[in-house]
Amino acid sequence: MTDASVSDISGIVDFAVATPELTHSKPAPDRLLAGTPEQKTRNFFSDSTGQFFAGTWESTPGKWRVRYAESEFCHILRGQVHIEDERGNGRTFQTGDSFVVPAGFIGTWHVKVPTLKLYAIFEAASK
């Protein structure tokens, strides 16, 4: 879905009633470290600049390398993930937790149990 008029109520996206397309994906083989994670994304909102997105993402268990060009706010609705940086420092997040992964983060995502999250992503325009 794309953004609507920003001057009236029609521009508000209600996740409870919107029906965005479901996209299936898997981590790229060169990034996969463990498991066979399958991911589903529903992007409920994209702004007109192509820099801001919001929706839901879910994944089956697995572990893969990540490199963030964007900043991402996450809220775990169900499940548990462990995120680790390149130095081996990690944090576990589970149902009810909210966090931000800043642009420039390099490390791993490890989905321990099937996980569903809300996301809001901002990716700065290329210079």
Automatic annotation (TrEMBL):
Among InterPro entries, the record links this protein to: RmlC-like_jellyroll (IPR014710), RmlC_Cupin_sf (IPR011051), UGlyAH_Cupin_dom (IPR008579)
Native source species: Povalibacter uvarum
| One protein family per Pfam | Cupin_3
What's the domain of life for this entry?
Answer: Bacteria
**Lineage in the entry?**
Bacteria, Pseudomonadati, Pseudomonadota, Gammaproteobacteria, Steroidobacterales
SUPFAM superfamilies under this entry? RmlC-like cupins
Provide the (S)-ureidoglycine aminohydrolase cupin domain boundaries. Answer: 49-119
What start-end ranges are recorded for coiled-coil regions in this protein? Answer: none
Q: What is this protein called?
A: (S)-ureidoglycine aminohydrolase cupin domain-containing protein
